[in-house]
Design goal:
This protein is α+β, with helices and mostly antiparallel strands. The protein has helices at 33-51, 53-140, 155-167, 226-233, 244-249, 251-265, 272-275, 288-296, 301-304, and strands at residues 172-173, 177-179, 188-190, 193-196, 202-208, 238-243. It has a four-stranded mixed sheet, with helices on both faces. It has a two-stranded antiparallel sheet with strand order 2-3. A hairpin with a 5-residue loop joins strand 4 and strand 5. Helix 1 (33-51) runs antiparallel to helix 2 (53-140). The longest helix has 88 residues, at 53-140. It starts with 32 loop residues before the first helix and ends with a helix.
């Protein structure tokens, strides 16, 4: 599968905001205090006119002059504020025009990068279809498992099964068998766990103990499972083997290793749900002698009851 192109999604530039508009023409709005001042002036002037006519007329003249002066300064202040706002608006409008030109240039670049990314991704998808066709043909030749068996499993395998099914829902099966015609009485190989997805990818997941728990007989030592591995591989399966200590101590890391194999086959990056899991420490395959020494020292007890 062709590697997925490293496409960085361009960030769309932010459109500049229009400056807040102001009225095109100045409109005078008298202060609410002016009518109150006018009413009070008329009342006081009329009152004193009734008592002392000359004084009342004089006060009315003073109040009228003050009223006109009040209107003049109020209008002048509002007009000065309008001119200031107009000058600020003109500056903001000019800055908006400058930002708009920058935005148009950045947006054109964004559109071009977006189209380039879409074109590159479409090319990658097309390459994947071309590359995946032979893989689909190969996967179609994979020998499907036969009847289900009920293998005897230990507690560690039961616990690991729950981890597998949590990370690969609907793709983990137990007891899947492949018939081996070389053996009499219809002997079949049974996978410890079988990973089977919608593309017919079959993976035999094996758990290897260094020795049998009851008999202390060395098992799964170097070259011990060569024929079994070849049997599954020759029928289109992939074989992944973990030692028992790995699934007990690092079940999440084992699931990440399986996911890495699957997504490497499909040429896709490892999703975050798996990349966040720890890496799996490596363990060397033991010899018959080493397995025998582990059996004598009851090595399995050091991690099965940790």
């Amino acid at each position: 599968m062709p590697p997925r192109p490293a496409i960085i999604s361009p960030k769309e530039p932010k459109r500049p905001q229009l400056p807040e508009k102001i009225p095109e023409k100045f409109k005078f709005k008298p202060s609410p205090l002016i009518p109150i001042f006018g009413l009070c002036s008329c009342f006081l002037g009329g009152y004193f006119t009734l008592i002392i006519p000359f004084l009342g007329i004089f006060l009315l003249f003073i109040f009228a002059f003050a009223f006109v002066l009040f209107l003049y300064f109020d209008r002048r202040e509002q007009h000065q504020l309008y001119l200031t706002q107009k000058r600020i608006y003109s500056q903001n409008w000019q800055q908006y025009q400058d930002r708009k030109r920058v935005y148009q240039t950045a947006f054109a670049k964004f559109q071009q990068e977006k189209q380039d990314g879409q074109r590159l991704f479409a090319q990658w998808e097309n390459d994947c279809k071309i590359a995946f066709s032979p893989m689909q043909a190969q996967l179609a030749k994979t020998v499907k498992p036969g009847h289900n068996n009920r293998p005897i499993r230990g507690q560690s395998e039961k616990e690991f099964e729950s981890d597998l099914k949590r990370h690969f829902p609907g793709k983990i099966y137990v007891g899947k068998t492949l018939h081996n015609p070389q053996f009499d009485r219809g002997f079949s190989y049974t996978a410890d766990f079988a990973y089977i997805d919608e593309n017919r990818l079959h993976i035999d997941i094996e758990i290897d103990e260094p020795y049998a728990y009851q008999t202390r007989k060395p098992i799964h030592f170097i070259d011990c499972d060569r024929d079994r591995n070849h049997f599954f591989l020759s029928r289109g399966w992939i074989v992944i083997r973990f030692c028992e200590e790995q699934i007990v101590r690092y079940p999440g890391a084992c699931c990440r290793a399986i996911a890495q194999v699957v997504f490497d086959i499909y040429g896709r990056p490892l999703p975050r749900q798996y990349s966040g899991l720890p890496l799996l420490p490596s363990f060397s395959r033991w010899t018959w002698k080493e397995a025998d020494e582990m059996a004598r020292g009851e090595y399995r007890q050091t991690y099965l009851h940790h």
